[in-house]
Design a protein that fits this description.
The complex is a heterotrimer of chains A (100), B (487) and C (475). Chain A has helices at 7-16, 23-40, 75-80; strands at residues 64-65, 85-86, 89-93. With 100 residues, chain A is α+β, with helices and mostly antiparallel strands. In chain A, strands 2-3 form a two-stranded antiparallel sheet. The longest helix of chain A is centred in the first third of the chain and has 18 residues, at 23-40. In chain A, 30% of the residues are buried. Chain B is of the alpha+beta class and 487 residues long. In chain B, α2 (165-181) packs antiparallel against α3 (222-241). Chain C is of the alpha/beta class and 475 residues long. Chain C has 15 helices and eleven strands. In chain C, α2 (18-36) packs antiparallel against α3 (44-60) and α9 packs across α12. The chains are: A alpha+beta (100), B alpha+beta (487), C alpha/beta (475). Chains A and C meet through α1, α2 and β3 of A and α9, α10, α11, α12 and α13 of C. β3 (89-93) of chain A pairs antiparallel with β8 (141-145) of chain B, so a sheet runs across the interface.
Chain lengths: 100, 487, 475
């Protein structure tokens, strides 16, 4: 199963992950990811036919909270942490992509 | 343009009317000051964790019951990963391969529209695009408000079973009435409580192919829905006829130009990388949860319409309007219940008043029909039915009732506008009028049809004048007719 | 070093003031912190206020709590209201959370005095604390060596006497491995025993907060304070904190102890580490336990599964650092480029590597082969352990295959660094409790840790066994 990780793969994944990798990083990551994935591909050696996945180590179900409203964090405190604020909202540069 | 068939599937996003958000206790309120209903959880601050609102689950189960959806033993939340500034965590907590409800349907005018699934997910924040054009791509920057982030949504996905814009509209109307009836949403499209994406494709009539579809996003009124589907359907068919291909893509409805616009952007090839949300545990609805929902289910719109048509003898169209307008059917029911036996007013009379006068008033003022207590309307209907006031007088009384919130009978009494129906009193007046206008009575009896009509009108007018316009026209007619025939 | 329980007893009785205790510890910090860099920030003034408040409570006759006046170091990935919380990352530099983590509220309510925020591998990703954006922490036993990681700052702080207690987080061994390398006790509780609310997530289905202490008893005291149900964490077990201290000295007579081959007899393990596990087993046998060797075959696949699952969850958990709401922003012409530039500048090399790895493992076409398969292997590991726990009350194994290594020894080979976690990762995948207890020394006189593992919610037995090992080690 071990995949060779090409520069194009790295660039595609970097775009999904929103990382503006440098040329140098793209090169080294394609090697490192290849090596790590080759090791990780050991998981395919085990027969998991009919084995369900475990997403979570706990067998908990149905954890709910009652539908009760309460005050959140004061706006000033929230906005104080923001890199850019205008009219009590978070300001961001223009959005080119559409909301999926 | 030649005939073609349009194939439509709808994704309806319904904001659930819970008190608090889906995963935190922030108030679920529309229209508050920006970024005032936020906390570490709905802002996605580092370290915060979601806890599921029990009410959101209950509401999903109510909808399941109403839309004939099946509730699998277990459902799980999943993360839908994509970057967008409206979304504080850059993933949306949603449901993917194990939704809370599946496989249902809703009957629209005798046709069953399949519902694939209805799943829970969190809403995003809202951004306002600021700049020259006002549209997203022309904007210089955007301002984000997270009050809406984390509001619970139920996404109701239909099968591609709809065949026209009009049918799609009917589906949404029925769905809206159903969601309202089961009490899970205020279904206000203008406030975004109900938002619709439409998957549209076209094909030649009789074909069973599924054409390439386009997804039209965020249709926020029934009018937009109809126009967008019609436009998109025509656009696709024109492309097909010209030998071109329809591209599978997201398109946006532009209300001003009346067109759908491609939402493609070269960068985005979406890969949502869904995986089970590790911060939440599975939901396994219990027998008890199901029983509680079933025990509290209200009458659904279809059953309600049928009942009104049968019990009240009203038309299907009247029944539909009562059920579709939020609050109107409950109002009519209360008014009917308040009718007094002796007055002779019927449920049908009430519905006529509700449909015409009350609804007109509501449409005009935008006020809730609760302003005129249903008991007041019942009293008004009774006053007309018993002949105390005429229909025309009743309209004036209604206007005053609404304006001053006074009971109709009080107004009638205070203004002394009660109609004179007393036969003896009317007979006396008729006697006096005939005595004073002996010549006219004679001309009536001798005249032809046209002359008769003219003289009748004159005598009628004289009687009514004597009675200051408050005489019961029916009674006057009857007595006048008798007296003119007598001699 | 004075035990936390002794300090609390003295402060509660009025024999010593919390303020004096604090000042003594601040003096120790002033002396050695420049060489070790255990802390990202020492909160001296905040701690003085807290200590004074404890003293006031004592003077008033109020109960100051079971950890009254005990200085406690917090790993800098736990939120502290109004105080810097960085995850040792540039991307969170300067951020001050508007809320406290549940564990922070609990230790404060118990009278502990938060003395500072400790260094870690950025976002807890690493096994040496060299991946900190603010420079590495050094091992108090030998400053040319690493303290282990990712909770290296907390382990070093306890080992150096900066604080009797510390909290760390353990996703694949991040408490136990540095505890072993620094010669202190470190505990990863059963998943769900300690609330994660306010712990900045690395891999949500694996992360668990736990105590560091010089002794098993002090670690037990701290876990009693931080454990127990929290309605703010959906994955928190609806039970009160385990009772540990009371039964600590009940002995191990009759307990069935298994020595796990796959987590002891492994390639590259230092002989003296292996010998220490055997010696600890012999010690338990001498104390009346029944010891046998046991195999957990799927545990050998732990690292492979872990390095798919943990990065996958991390890639999603770390998506929120985008320059919009808090933390670093690097400007760009549109929002997508701003996000990408911010993340590129704000994240260190290892964090980016794992985000890339996890994004890849979840992406279309690879999910089933990588993430999906890793989750199935996780099921096999869980089943293997459950089967083994039908025959054994506890298991023992190595914590780290080696003693502390030199700074820089593994920084150029990510896979070699990942293999540091080979003995610790299985308990994270299964969610079971595990802890490391110091047991003798290895090469260059550096500390060795022996790992004790138990079934879900088996903390009381695990602590008893750890206590017996501690006694066998002559401590």
């Amino acid at each position: 199963m071990a995949e060779r990780i090409t520069r194009a793969d790295v660039e595609h994944v970097a775009q999904l992950a929103r990382l503006a990798l440098s040329e140098e990083e793209i090169g080294s990551l394609s090697e490192e990811l290849g090596a790590i994935l080759e090791y990780a591909a050991q998981v395919s050696a085990l027969d998991t036919h009919d084995v369900p996945p475990t997403a979570h180590p706990l067998p908990l179900v149905n954890v709910f909270r009652p539908d009760e409203a309460r005050a959140g964090v004061p706006r000033d405190e929230v906005l104080a942490a923001a890199p850019d604020v205008q009219e009590n909202r978070f300001r961001v540069p223009r959005i080119l992509g559409e909301e999926p | 343009m030649t005939a073609h068939e349009t194939v439509i599937g709808l994704e309806v996003h319904c904001e659930l009317a819970t008190a608090s958000k889906m995963f935190c206790g922030c108030p679920n309120e529309f229209g508050d000051e920006p970024n005032t209903n936020v906390c570490p959880v709905c802002l996605g601050l580092p370290g915060s964790l979601p806890v599921l609102n029990a009410k959101a689950v209950e509401y999903a189960l109510r909808v399941a019951e109403a839309l004939n959806l099946r509730v699998p033993e277990r459902s799980v939340f999943a993360r839908k990963n994509y970057f967008y500034p409206d979304m504080p965590k850059n993933y949306q907590t949603s449901q993917y391969d194990e939704p809370i409800t599946i496989d249902g349907g809703l009957d629209i005018d005798g046709v069953r529209v399949g519902i694939t699934r209805a799943h829970l997910e969190e809403d995003t924040g809202k951004s306002q695009h600021v700049g020259v054009g006002g549209r997203i791509h022309d904007a210089d920057f955007s301002l984000v408000d997270y009050n809406r982030a984390g509001v619970p949504l139920l996404e109701i996905v239909s099968e591609p079973d709809l065949r026209s814009a009009e049918q799609a509209k009917r589906y949404v109307e029925e769905l809206r009435a159903t969601l309202l009836a089961v009490g899970v949403s205020d279904v206000k499209m203008e406030e975004g409580s109900l938002r619709i994406d439409a998957n549209v494709s076209v094909r030649a009539p009789g074909s069973s192919d599924l054409g390439t579809r386009a997804e039209i996003k965020n249709l926020n009124s029934l009018r937009s829905l109809v126009r967008a589907i019609e436009h998109e359907s025509d656009r696709q068919w024109a492309l097909t006829q010209a030998g071109e291909k329809v591209v599978q893509e997201t398109r946006h409805w532009d209300e001003e130009s009346g067109r759908t616009i491609s939402g493609r952007s070269k960068e985005e090839a979406h890969d949502y990388r869904y995986f089970p949300e590790p911060d939440l545990v599975p939901v396994e609805p219990t027998q008890e949860m199901g029983d509680r929902v079933r025990a509290s289910m209200p009458e659904l719109p279809a059953a309600r319409r049928a009942r009104y048509a049968e019990q009240w003898g009203i038309s299907a169209e009247d029944a539909r309007i009562l059920v579709d307008v939020p609050g109107l059917a409950d109002y009519a029911e209360r008014a009917v219940a308040a009718l007094r036996d002796g007055d002779g007013g019927s449920a049908k009379d009430v519905v006529n008043w509700v449909r015409q006068e009350v609804l007109a008033y509501v449409n005009e003022t935008g006020l809730s029909p609760a302003l005129l207590a249903p008991e007041m309307l019942a009293e008004l209907v009774g006053l007309v039915a018993s002949g105390t006031i005429s229909r025309q007088q009743a309209k004036d009384v209604l206007a005053e009732s609404l304006r001053e919130e006074r009971w109709p009978r009080t107004i009638v009494e205070a203004r002394g506008i009660a109609q004179v129906s007393d036969e003896g009193a009317i007979a006396d007046v008729v006697e006096r009028v005939l005595a004073a206008n002996g010549g006219v009575a004679k001309e009536y009896r001798a005249g032809d049809e046209a002359a008769k009509k003219k003289k009748w009108g004159f005598l009628m007018g004289q009687v009514m004048r004597e009675l200051k316009g408050q005489g019961n026209a029916q009674v006057i007619n009857r007595i006048l007719e008798q007296r003119l025939a007598d001699e | 070093m004075i035990a936390a329980r002794r300090i609390a007893a003295d402060v509660r009785s009025g024999a010593r003031s919390a303020r004096d205790v604090l000042e003594e510890h601040l003096d120790v910090i002033n002396g050695r912190e420049p060489d070790l860099h255990a802390f990202n920030v020492v909160l001296a003034d905040v701690a003085r206020d807290a200590a004074d408040a404890v003293d006031v409570a004592v003077a008033r006759g109020d109960d100051p709590g079971p950890l009254a006046g005990v200085p406690l170091a917090l790993k800098d990935n736990m939120c502290t209201r109004g105080l810097p919380t960085t995850c040792s990352s540039r991307i969170l530099e300067g951020w001050r959370p508007p809320y406290d983590a549940t564990v922070v509220e609990r230790v404060r309510a118990a009278g502990a005095v938060v003395i500072g925020k400790t260094n870690l591998d950025e976002f807890a990703m690493g096994s040496s604390t060299e991946n900190s954006a603010f420079g590495p922490t050094r091992n108090p036993h030998d400053v040319t060596r690493v303290p282990g990681g990712s909770s290296g700052g907390s382990a070093a702080a306890v080992a150096a006497g900066f604080a009797p207690l510390a909290l760390g987080s353990d996703t694949g061994g991040s408490i136990r491995q540095p505890a072993a390398l620094c010669g202190v006790v470190g505990v990863k509780p059963t998943y769900g025993v300690v609330s994660r609310y306010g712990l900045i997530a690395f891999a949500s289905s694996l992360d668990q907060i736990g105590p560091f202490a010089a002794t098993v008893e002090d670690a037990a005291s701290l876990l009693e304070v931080i454990g127990g149900h929290d309605p703010l964490d959906s994955t928190s077990i609806a039970r009160p904190a385990p009772e540990l201290v009371a039964g600590l000295d009940d002995g191990v007579s009759g307990l069935r102890v298994g020595v796990v081959g796959e987590m002891t007899e492994i390639d590259g393990i230092e002989p003296r580490v292996r010998d220490a596990v055997k010696a600890a087993a012999a010690g338990l046998e001498a104390a009346g336990a029944k010891v046998d060797t046991v195999s957990v075959p799927s545990a050998a696949y732990g690292i492979a599964a872990y390095y798919l699952i943990a990065p996958a969850e991390a890639s999603s958990n770390l998506a929120r650092y985008d320059g919009v709401r808090y933390g670093l922003r690097v400007d760009a012409d549109d929002v997508a480029h701003m996000n990408a530039a911010t993340r590129e500048a704000g994240f260190g090399r290892e964090v980016k590597r794992r985000i890339m790895l996890g994004t890849y493992a979840l992406s279309a076409g690879y999910y089933d082969a990588y993430y999906g398969q890793a989750q199935r292997v996780r099921t096999l590991i869980l089943r293997d352990f459950e089967r083994v726990y039908e025959q054994f009350d506890v298991l023992i194994a190595a914590t780290s295959p080696t003693v502390a290594f030199e700074l820089g020894a593994k920084t150029t080979d990510p896979l070699a660094m990942y293999l540091c976690d080979v003995c610790t990762v299985p308990a994270n995948l299964s969610g079971h409790p595990a802890m490391s207890v110091p047991f003798g020394t290895g090469d260059a006189g550096l500390p060795i840790g022996v790992q004790v593992l138990a079934p879900a919610l088996g903390e009381p037995t695990m602590f008893r066994v750890a206590r017996a090992i501690e006694q066998a080690a002559g401590r």
